[in-house]
């Protein structure tokens, strides 16, 4: 059973200790608890759980009102971790995120005040509404899990995950994320409108008091599951396929896709291949397997790669999206596709 075809289990009381329980069973209970508040959005919920297990950050993109913020807050409540929310606005400065040094006249010295990034779950709401200098303040903490203030470095709590939201339909008062920061997100998940039935359920739930969710997973157990995900077996064929997909975004002509060459200005960085493989391990763990399938990589590829492609002017002027290019690439590349001159087998040895 995949999480995208999730059926609601019978509720159970939160266990005192998850040690020894299968990760899939515990995470199904986590998902059940979240779905007491969130209607639908199964694909988004699965990707969030995969990102949690893979220690990756997530960029959620969708129009207002699709429960992006509510989903992140609810997930943090069910996980039992500390939750911090920053509303990004044009007047923010980097110190509003990471903290600063403050002079204390009574003691005659400087004290460090840590900012709101120091929590397990950081919700960067409407991240594209802050200027580049504020967005770049997250670069160090997203990659190195620490913040440098003055001459001192301060580690953030573990696990640490940034879940950012942005609205794709507004351009006034927004600042596109720099490529260096976009590349640090494991996934870019597109959040779509609910179905008619789901929307009816949303309206019905709005007429009742909000649900109180219970903690279903502690932070130590989440870290244990993260370590278990890294132990999932990955075959050389799976690694080679992920590498070829990334190489296909840089040199599509090598795979008989010359028509894509004029549409892609820059392909994915190596983080794309790393992200697909590590997310594949987490997805396999969620689905109760001890090995990663090529189908896992194909399933995850759009969410891992769509934000790592820089499209050319020709693509933008013709209305070609990154998803269109990836659909074409995935349709042409299958497991075992011959690698170009420098063999993929040599590259992944």
Query: Which stretches are poorly predicted, pLDDT < 50 over at least 5 residues?
Result: 1-17, 341-349
Whole-angstrom Rg:
21 Å
In the CATH hierarchy, what is the superfamily of the largest domain? P-loop containing nucleotide triphosphate hydrolases
Q: Cα distance, first to last residue?
A: 33 Å
Descriptive notes:
- By secondary structure, the chain is an alpha/beta fold.
- It has two domains: 3-9 and 19-199 and 218-225, Rossmann fold (3-Layer(aba) Sandwich); 232-347, Helicase, Ruva Protein, domain 3, CATH 1.10.8.
- 42% of the residues lie in helices and 15% in strands.
- It contains 16 helices and eleven strands.
- The protein has helices spanning 23-35, 42-54, 68-79, 95-98, 132-135, 139-144, 179-182, 196-206, 219-230, 236-250, 258-261, 270-286, 294-305, 313-317, 322-332, 344-347, and strands at 57-61, 83-87, 99-104, 109-114, 121-125, 146-149, 152-155, 161-166, 185-190, 264-266, 310-311.
- β3 and β4 (109-114) form a beta hairpin.
- α10 (236-250) packs across α12 (270-286).
- The model is unreliable at 1-17 and 341-349 (pLDDT under 50).
Characteristics of this structure?
single chain, 349 residues, alpha/beta, Rossmann fold, Helicase, Ruva Protein, domain 3, 2 domains, five-stranded parallel sheet, two-stranded antiparallel sheet, 11 strands, 15% strand, globular, disordered N terminus, disordered C terminus
């Amino acid at each position: 059973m995949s999480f995208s075809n999730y059926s609601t289990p019978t509720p159970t009381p939160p266990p005192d200790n998850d040690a020894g329980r299968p990760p899939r069973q515990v995470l199904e209970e986590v998902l059940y608890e979240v779905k007491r508040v969130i209607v639908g959005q199964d694909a988004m919920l699965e990707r969030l759980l995969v990102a949690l297990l893979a220690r990756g950050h997530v960029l959620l993109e969708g129009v207002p009102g699709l429960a992006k913020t509510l989903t992140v807050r609810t997930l943090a409540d069910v996980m039992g971790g500390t939750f911090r929310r920053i509303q990004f606005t044009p007047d923010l400065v980097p110190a509003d995120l990471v903290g600063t040094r403050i002079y204390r006249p009574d003691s005659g010295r400087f004290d460090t005040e840590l900012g709101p990034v120091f929590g397990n779950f950081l919700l960067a709401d409407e991240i594209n509404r802050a200027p580049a200098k504020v967005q770049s303040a997250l670069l160090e903490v997203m990659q190195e899990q620490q913040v440098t203030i003055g001459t001192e470095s301060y580690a953030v709590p573990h696990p640490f995950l940034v879940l950012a939201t942005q609205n794709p339909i507004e351009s006034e008062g927004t600042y596109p994320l720099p490529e260096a920061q976009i590349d640090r997100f494991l996934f870019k998940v597109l959040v779509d409108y609910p179905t008619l039935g789901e929307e009816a359920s949303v309206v019905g739930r709005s007429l009742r008091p909000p649900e109180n969710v219970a903690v279903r997973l502690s932070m130590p157990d989440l870290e244990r599951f993260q370590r278990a995900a890294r132990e999932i077996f990955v075959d050389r064929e799976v690694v080679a396929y992920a590498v070829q997909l990334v190489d296909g975004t840089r040199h599509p002509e090598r795979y008989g896709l010359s028509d894509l060459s004029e549409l892609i200005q820059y392909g994915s960085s190596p983080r794309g291949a790393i992200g697909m493989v590590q997310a594949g391990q987490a997805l396999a763990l969620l689905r109760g397997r001890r090995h990663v399938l090529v189908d896992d990589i194909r399933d995850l590829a759009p969410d891992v790669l769509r934000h790592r492609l820089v499209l050319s002017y020709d693509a933008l002027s013709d209305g070609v999206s990154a998803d269109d290019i990836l659909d074409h690439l995935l349709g042409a590349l299958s497991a075992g596709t011959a690698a170009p001159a420098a063999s993929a087998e040599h590259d992944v040895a």
